[in-house]
Amino acid sequence: MRVLLVGANGYLGRHVADRLLADPAVQLTALGRGDDADVRFDLATGSPGALTRFLDAVHPGVVINCAGATRGGARDLTRHNTVAVATICESLRRSGCGARLVHLGCASEYGPSQPGSSTAEDAVPRPGGPYGVSKLAATELVLGSGLDAVVLRVFSPVGPGTPAGSPLGRLAEAMRRAIQSGEGELKLGGLGVQRDFVDVRDVARAVHAASLSAAQGVVNIGTGKAVRLREAAAVLARVAGFGGALHELDAPPGHAPGRVPIPGQGGDHHGAGLPAYPYPDGCGSWQQADVRTARDRLGWRPRIGLEESLADIWMEAACRI
Prior knowledge:
Elements: E1 2-6, H1 11-21, E2 27-32, E3 39-40, H2 48-58, E4 62-65, H3 74-94, E5 100-106, H4 130-143, E6 149-154, E7 156-158, H5 167-181, E8 185-188, E9 194-195, E10 197-199, H6 200-212, E11 217-221, E12 227-228, H7 229-240, E13 245-248, E14 259-260, H8 292-298, H9 306-318
Parallel strand pairs: 1-2, 1-4, 2-3, 4-5, 5-6, 6-11, 7-10, 8-13
Antiparallel strand pairs: 9-12, 13-14
Helix pairs in contact: 1-6, 2-3, 3-4, 5-7, 5-9, 7-9
């Protein structure tokens, strides 16, 4: 099976590439903007005609789109997340390759959810910011394209390669600095949000499964369990061996600010603090996936627990000590 992978050098794309390369039945070609891509092509500015000619020459059986932007203004997000997908869809319609399209969407397309609820694929999307809007527009283009296509709505990916600018990436870096400098306290904000954290390697498995399946429409990829960022921070501190205190600067209604308990740790410590950071995904205080569709249509379940994901995040941060 020949697979064209778009965005192979991104956070998700690197893991998808590793998963596909482990399958001896897959012939992989990477398309992207960087010099290390097999084929250089900018989806935001390239013409559908040029991409169609490439598709006709390579004749992939599956096209996987992991490309996109997570930061920037509305104009940049629209170019890289929406216009790029319009180019892919139009090129596939024009091409004679008949390839199946696996497109990676995101939970930000849904927007905020009711605390305690699980969001299913039939939920009405109400994205809370320009990123979610740009991704939702891309999903609608895929669903309305008439192609053999599936959209995987990935919830909160974590694990090896977690971007340094993400909440858990920033927390790991802050702990690294605190341990290196001997500080005994981290002051944190934004720990009250709850997210469905799914390991990036499990996401790659889902992409592989989707490329081999006949599933169409939208499929959620998550664990089905929301975890408060406060709890994830405590686990990360434990796997890092951070003996200090995580002091919460702000707290959600009904939860008093104070020390974040670290399992197995005690004592009062003081030191340099970390400014509060936002969780700018437009999803409010709660998100949790309903993952029954992934189980039933892809035969997929998450395998890697959050503690293992966090341990891998810390291992990468610790290498910089």
